[in-house]
Specification:
single chain; alpha/beta; Quinone Oxidoreductase, Chain A, domain 1; Rossmann fold; 11 helices; globular
């Protein structure tokens, strides 16, 4: 089995996947597919070198099958299909004691601070696993982790049937948020400037606006009878998005900040005060969000096939990251196939 090792300086090497026998409370899984996400791209660009120890296997959006079970593990067995929730909290700090384990200050994010999923064999803590149905579509299951992010965001936005939601940014997370909102019976408008993403959103049946070509504020208020959006999701991480998010909600509407901003942004605090918005940040996920994502995947109602742009062998990981960073391909989500032996 093969593995992709991040070497630093925008470089991956491909070598053998080291088989690590599971210790107490661990299992060893053979990874079927691992998705590339924005965090992995930041790693490739060197933005997170201070948190890694190259050469290191990265990646955290993965699905696989258990092949070995360590001492003390009773909830899982060999042959179980599983997905990993890669956020391992300390369980002892004030945040964890309050149940805020997704934002533990010393959070071990597996695939960043410890070895990740771009490898055929992966040994992980059993308490972070979620068991999957034996007949689940493994390609769809590889999207459970980002879908759990979307489920967390939508839960924090308190989206309900009949709500009017605006998604600013139609990358993988924004698109999944749109699907989850729609599944809850909300009306959804997606704002995006990338033509390929706009095209895909239209194909999926979403109402879309390119704010460079159309007045998004006017459009939202027209569609809502002058009220404004119930919930706005900021998923662009840009100054334009930070400015737009405060222009769209109704009075006492909700703004959910999802994107990671690289630096502080100018935000219209007066509008937040004047219209009494609720503004929340939504980061990572909790167990219940993974459970919801698994329910959505197994329900088969979401068009997840449309989000998978390509499936590539681990030997092409360097080429794939270069394609993503260089804009050579309008990928939505690329999966790395780590199953070859």
């Amino acid at each position: 089995m093969k593995a992709a090792y991040y070497e630093g300086n925008k470089k991956f090497s491909v070598g053998e996947s080291v088989i690590v026998p599971p210790g107490k409370g661990q299992v060893r899984m053979e990874v079927a597919y691992a998705g590339i996400c924005g965090t992995d791209v930041h790693i490739f660009l060197g933005h997170m070198d201070h948190r890694l120890t190259p050469p290191q296997v990265v990646g955290h959006e993965a699905v696989g099958t258990i092949v070995e079970v360590g001492q003390g593990v009773t909830d899982f067995k060999k042959g179980d299909r599983v997905v990993l929730r890669p956020t391992d909290a300390c369980g002892k700090c004030p945040s964890c004691e309050r149940g805020h384990i997704n934002i533990c200050p010393t959070l071990n994010f597996i695939g960043i601070t410890t070895p990740g999923a771009f490898q055929g064999s992966w040994t992980v803590p059993a308490h972070l696993l979620h068991k999957l149905p034996a007949d689940i579509n493994m390609v769809h299951a590889a999207l459970i982790e980002p879908l759990a992010v979307a489920a967390h965001d939508v839960r924090y936005g308190e989206v309900k049937q009949g709500d009017f939601c605006v998604i600013l940014g139609a990358g993988p997370i924004g698109m999944l948020e749109a699907m989850v909102c729609q599944e809850k019976g909300a009306r959804v408008v997606i704002s995006e400037v990338n033509e390929a993403r706009l095209k895909l959103a239209k194909e999926l049946g979403f109402d879309v606006v390119n704010p460079k070509e159309q007045d998004l504020v006017k459009y939202v208020f027209q569609k809502t009878g002058g009220a404004g959006a119930d919930v706005v999701f900021e998923v662009t991480g840009t100054q334009a998005g930070a400015e737009m998010m405060t222009k769209l909600p109704r009075t006492r509407g909700m703004i959910v900040i999802v994107a990671i901003f690289a630096e502080p942004m100018m935000v219209d605090l007066r509008n937040i005060l004047w219209r009494e918005y609720t503004v929340v940040g939504a980061r990572n996920y909790l167990k219940q969000d993974f459970d919801e994502a698994i329910r959505l995947v197994t329900g088969g109602r979401l068009p997840l096939d449309k989000l998978v742009s390509d499936i590539r062998p681990v030997e092409r990981v360097q080429e794939t990251f270069e394609d993503i960073v260089g804009g050579k391909a309008n990928f939505m989500k690329v999966l790395i196939d780590t199953s070859a032996k």
